[in-house]
Design brief:
The chain is α+β, with helices and mostly antiparallel strands. It has an eleven-stranded mixed sheet with strand order 1-34-2-3-8-9-10-11-20-21-25, with helices on one face. Strands 6, 7, 26, 27, 28, 29, 30 and 31 form an eight-stranded mixed sheet that branches. It has a three-stranded mixed sheet with strand order 19-12-23, with helices on one face. A hairpin with an 8-residue loop joins strand 9 (291-297) and strand 10 (306-308). The longest helix has 28 residues, at 60-87. It is globular.
């Protein structure tokens, strides 16, 4: 026994020593001095208790060179993954398993678009945003060449190449793709339209329904000369391989002075993004003469997409507009390299690209483009199974070069609502809702996107006829007619990925909007009182209640015979009184979602097949159509087409309930008191290398159970499935609350931690806070920061 204890003690000390050696070799540096070639004056970085760098510089270039360095030492591997996805070079680092991902992004045109944007960037003269970006890149590259590279590179046997502006443009392209709902939805809707009776589609919400909640527009007065605001006193399997998360949705609401206790603007934002480790946003606070900004940065982006100064705050949600159409081409019967276009023919352009593959020979593949865009049959399996005709992607993003760098630079430096709108105009895609509040009492929301005007006969969710020019978009909506609201009489603006109301030009703009359950809860709460504060806003931001799900559940309960609940009466009683809360101690969500899955599967899998049924559950169409599907008694979906008899709602729902109760009993036991929601929910933030065991045990970040839900304000989404275990895959990527009574007391929280370096003390320190609904400060007060900071880095030129 003594020998065993001695051996264990030796092993313990070996492990401790090994960890310390690895930390010294691969860990970040948060104290001391660092020399950077090109830095003109000394710059100081104070780290707060949560690892956020507070950068104090004497000029802009030094501030961004320093930001590049500290951003890279915390998030370099994340930057690597982002730029490789956007440039179609992932297989060079991760191997042949992701060759299809590279093919997809190259075919879609993101790398080609990045190169085009970079080419124009190089031709531009010197601009402030160009100078600041290049300084940031110098800082990143100084870390790559001199700093402790994260351990992931050693594990993969790779070394990073230097960072470039083309990498930034590739990251912007990836960010622009991430919504991608058209690719998940349009092939499925087209298949339904072609294979099923029209009565099937009538039950679905392919387009916004009257019962959905709309975002009201409030257009400002404008100067007739320059359009300036005049203020008044008032793809599923393939995408699963991605090592970086997708942007999915978001909430933001800004409350005007008439509804706050302080009489100042109250600003809230929580962007909904796929969970990953590290989490998406990197926070940084920059100070130099004439500039003070606290921003949330994407990996590899020099300027914060979300952030605030002492004068104003800017937030984002996804607009969810439809900016992608699919054109099914007809080939010239005499020449397969041409497509029919009206009375004429158009050539198919071809190019061959080489994909480098780690440990394998390079892969060469051909990309074809019609007059409408790249042909997607080979890289989107759903399209390839649907038709043999070439189907081209017409996507707004690749039609013009990106100005995202210029836009984000200008937004961070805006002094008022007019200057923010001027910067917002530069965003052509993806569609974003830009939220705004300032210390003068102004609140605003703009839908930022270049919106095509489609012919009236066109349904943008179904493949269009590439041979007929009349299906093509005809013009662009002027920015002034985009959805927006400036200082509305309601005293608040809010967006939750739902449909904007009719535009000033009379267009009800199509998109992949959510039904507005979140927006309605926000609007009802905000307008119910006039004493909102930073503190009482937390409860609304953390609310896990959905009003529609109890109505769905009640419809299901009323359909079945109560005899089926014999022995499960406590569950039935709880379900009848459910208010839609996803409290962790509640048993109702555990029963409801399993029963719901089996009901939908019984309804739809026979028509769609297992693969497309699974795809359906991953689209906006599922969320938006669910109430209609469940509550329509005479829907054709209820009939199982694989049987000779005609099934009814009662039969399908009762069969689903029997399966549900049987499986939950096997899973949790016969005592329904133990069927609590927290036992069915798992939250784990996956690292790119965590897909391979045992690296998941090292790099992934596990968190306590959270109030997983569908379409509550605190949206913590999961994939509906029949297993009874729900892995939360996305949610708020931060939770920001700022009261302009005291901007320096703003609060936020990240899902895991500020650093992506495994050996950082800030790798996962916020994970439990986040799961429990806690917040921490966003510091801006210089005296407090410098007095309280325990870690300081000093940068000097050499």
């Amino acid at each position: 026994m003594k020998k065993l204890l001695f051996a264990l003690l030796i092993l313990f000390f070996i492990l401790i020593a090994g960890y310390q050696i690895a930390k010294y070799q691969f860990g970040p540096t948060y104290d001391g001095e660092i020399e950077i070639t090109g830095l003109s004056t000394e710059t100081e970085v104070y780290y707060d208790d949560y690892g956020i760098p507070h950068i104090y510089a004497t000029n802009e270039a030094d501030a961004y060179m320093t930001l590049g360095y500290v951003h890279a030492q915390d998030r370099l591997f994340q930057m690597e993954m982002m730029r490789r996805v956007g440039s179609g070079t992932l297989a060079e680092m991760l191997g042949e398993n992701v060759v299809d991902v590279d093919k997809f992004f190259r075919t879609l045109g993101i790398p080609k678009h990045a190169e085009w944007t970079t080419e124009l960037w190089e031709k531009d003269g010197n601009t402030p945003w160009k100078t600041a970006t290049e300084a940031y890149i110098k800082g990143v590259n100084h870390f790559i060449n001199t700093g402790n590279l994260p351990i992931e590179y050693t594990l993969l046997g790779m070394k990073p190449r230097e960072f470039t502006v083309n990498d930034i443009h590739s990251i912007v392209g990836y960010m622009s793709f991430t919504f991608a709902m058209a690719m998940k939805t349009d092939p499925l809707v087209t298949k339904m339209a072609r294979n099923l009776d029209p009565s099937y589609l009538k039950v679905l919400s392919v387009h916004t329904l009257p019962q959905h909640y709309l975002i009201p527009n409030s257009y400002p007065l404008r100067n007739s000369e320059n359009s300036e605001i005049v203020l008044e006193s008032k793809l599923s399997t393939l995408l699963d391989k991605l090592p970086v998360p997708l942007l999915e949705g978001s909430n933001s609401w800004v409350i005007g002075p008439s509804r706050t206790a302080s009489g100042e603007v109250l600003f809230l934002n929580d962007t909904h993004i796929g969970f990953a480790q590290p989490s998406v946003w990197y926070e940084a606070h920059l100070e130099y003469p004439g500039f003070s900004y606290y921003g949330n940065h994407l990996a590899g982006m020099p300027f914060g997409l979300v952030g605030h100064t002492r004068e104003l705050s800017i937030g984002l949600t996804m607009f969810e507009n439809d900016d992608q159409d699919f054109f099914e081409e007809k080939l010239n019967p005499n020449n397969p390299n041409e497509t029919v276009y009206g009375e004429d023919f158009r050539p198919i352009k071809k190019r061959t690209e080489e994909i480098k593959v780690k440990g394998k020979d390079p892969v060469n593949f051909e990309i074809r483009e019609s007059i409408h865009g790249p042909i997607m049959n080979d890289v989107i399996p759903e399209i390839g199974r649907l038709t043999e005709n070439p189907v081209a992607s017409w996507w707004v993003y690749i039609l013009e070069p990106s100005k995202a760098i210029e836009a984000t630079y200008k937004m961070a430096r805006a002094k008022n609502v007019q200057e923010v709108e001027s910067a917002v105009r530069l965003i052509h895609a993806p569609g974003l809702n830009v939220m705004y509040g300032d210390n003068k009492g102004n609140i605003a929301w703009w839908a930022a996107a270049k919106l095509p005007i489609r012919p009236e006969h066109v349904s943008s969710k179904i493949f269009l006829d590439g041979s007929n020019p009349i299906d093509e978009p005809k013009a662009w909506i002027p920015f002034e007619e985009n959805p927006m609201s400036i200082n509305p009489e309601s005293g608040f603006v809010a967006s939750a990925n739902n449909q904007p109301d009719t535009l000033s030009n009379g267009i009800f703009y199509p998109g992949y909007y959510y039904p507005g359950d979140r927006w309605n809860r926000i609007a009802k709460a905000v307008t119910s009182r006039t004493d909102w504060t930073q503190e009482n806003s937390k409860g609304l931001q953390l609310e896990a209640v959905n009003e529609n799900h109890p109505l769905n559940l009640l419809s299901m309960i009323q359909t079945v015979d109560n005899e089926l609940f014999k022995g499960y009466e406590p569950a039935l009683d709880a379900m009848k009184s459910w208010n839609g809360s996803h409290n962790l101690e509640s048993i109702v969500p555990t029963v409801y979602y399993k029963w719901l899955y089996h009901t939908l599967h019984g309804m739809m899998a026979d028509e769609l097949g297992e693969d497309d049924f699974a795809n359906f559950l991953k689209t906006f169409l599922y969320i938006r159509s669910l109430p209609s599907l469940i509550r329509t008694d005479d829907s054709p979906w209820w009939d199982n087409i694989s049987t000779s008899s005609k099934e009814t709602k009662k039969q399908i729902v009762e069969d689903a309930l029997k399966k549900c109760l049987e499986e939950l009993t096997a899973q949790f036991g016969s005592n329904t008191d133990k069927w609590v929601w927290k036992e069915a929910v798992i939250l784990e933030h996956p690292h790119p290398l965590g897909a391979k065991k045992p690296l998941d045990k090292i790099f992934n970040v596990k968190a306590p159970a959270v109030t997983a839900n569908e379409e509550s304000i605190n949206k913590l989404a999961f994939q509906l499935n029949g297993s009874g275990i729900y892995r939360v895959h996305s949610g708020p990527a931060m939770r920001i609350i700022i009261d302009f009574q005291n901007v320096e007391s703003g609060i936020s929280v990240l899902p895991t931690g500020q650093s992506g370096n495994y050996f950082s003390q800030w790798y996962s320190d916020q994970a439990e806070m986040y799961a429990k609904g806690e917040y921490r400060p966003m510091l801006m007060n210089e005296d407090f920061i410098k007095t309280q900071s325990k870690n300081k880095l000093t940068f000097r030129g050499k």
